[in-house]
Amino acid sequence: MSMKKSFILTMLLWTVTLMGAAQPKFASKVKKGIFSVNTYDKNGNLLRQGKGFYVGDNGEAVADYRLFKNAYKAVAVDAAGKSMGVDCVLGADDAYSMVRFKVATKGNVVLPSVKVFQPMNSKIFVLNGADKADMKSEQATVADTSLIQGKYVFYGLDRKVDDNLIGLPVFNEAGVLVGMLHSSMGNKSYVLDIRFREVLNIEAIPNSSASVALGNIFIPKGLPATAEEALVYLYMKSRSTSNDEYMDMTNRFVASFPQNAEGYLRRATPLIDLVRFDEAESDLQKYLSLVDDKAAGHYNVASLIFDKLRLQPEPAYEKWNEDAALQYVDKALELNSSKPAEEQRTEALKYRVLKAQILMHKRDYDSAIALYEALRQDEANNPSFLYAISLAREARGDSIAQVLEPIDSAIAQFGNPMPAEAANFVIRRGQLYANSGKYREAVLDYNQYCYLVNNKVNAVFYYERSQIELNGRMFQPAMEDINRAIEMAPREPLYHVERAALALRVGMLDECIESCQNTIRLNPDIIDSYRILGYAQLQKGDKQNARANIQKAVDMGDETAKKLMETYFAQ
Asked: How many domains does the chain contain in total?
């Protein structure tokens, strides 16, 4: 090749390079809308680095989803080097790899976005996102398009641009944001329509794709756009998130919808769990000031206080006790009296039931029983009040006959054949029979319960029935039931030691020894297993091992084992 040709080729290559790296006129205007993003794992280690760009006010931005996947924290760094945390994720899609999020900034430059798709052969520019003043870009042309969801565009470019630019903003010649560089394949690159961000939202019940995408990002999430959807979202998330996460969600709700009473009631729950009682009390009072239905509001506050007393009795909070809860319920009943008759009756029933439950918790059994009796008169076809009366009488210390009477009445009310709803009443009567020594009657009720629930019972049921059968000297069915319990829960040592005791009682010494050995293998700290094993070995004539196991029980503090040693191994 001649020197002249070599020079010309070099000049052409240099010219192409300049064309590819040329800075468009609008670059200086948009660079403040582009920022760096660092994401971090749960241990605070750097996960990935990339770019994001602002598409809306109040820090609304988008980036490549892959930058955020598995991240627990993200930090935005602007061109001036200022760091700002990513406040929350607003939506995500892993299939098209875009995430919408909010940066905690007091002000940001918004990159104007196209309203319609770009035509074929139009020029586009991918900015390299450099933080320096000499920001460069790559230019390409729209070569083909395809639709996403019938509305958004996936642009194919006429050339492949640098893969290091994936996730960066793409502009048209006027400097208006077209999309985000999505991927490369072969000798082409592809751009995702910036309007696709419209589908990236937090929904009360997200589709499976969105659920998976959001589930792989552990940065706090935003809320749905409307208060109604946001409340449904809070309800759904309350079952699966930690108190801190749920607190963040309720804080966001209150900040977004400060005049919505429900937010303050919802936030009081995690505040109580976090032992921030004064703040919870303040939220409840704010809730009462805003709620439209004052009767329902006072009932809800009473319910929340009652839940705290039942489920989180310690530490105590001086402003919340049974009397405080009762005052709220009584106020609810007073306010309810002005409602239309049918609505008043329905609400009053609910309020009175809560009042009876609070009285039970207060151990004011006389007042609770009186209220349940009144409810029973008003709601003659509701057997649940008979069940509650039985519990209250038992707690008060009434005779077994007095405790059984309302349960018998409820069961009779169900008629024959009994429906499945009668199951809890039948098992309750069986337990009462067992506690009073009527073991055979108790077994009949346990059998009836098993039939009513279509034999869908667990290991605990079989264990309890085996104990009742044992006390009633029904040894064969007792053995069958304890064997069923072991089949369903083979690693529960209690069942093995109970089987050992039963086997010893009926002279099944080999089975007894085997069950004791199983018990010791599962839990070597159960004293009974050593004493029973030693006694069974003694009955079989194995005095050496018998003595060692009984002594083991003595060493563990078993008084019965000590008597066995004195009886059978006295010097």
From this structure: 1
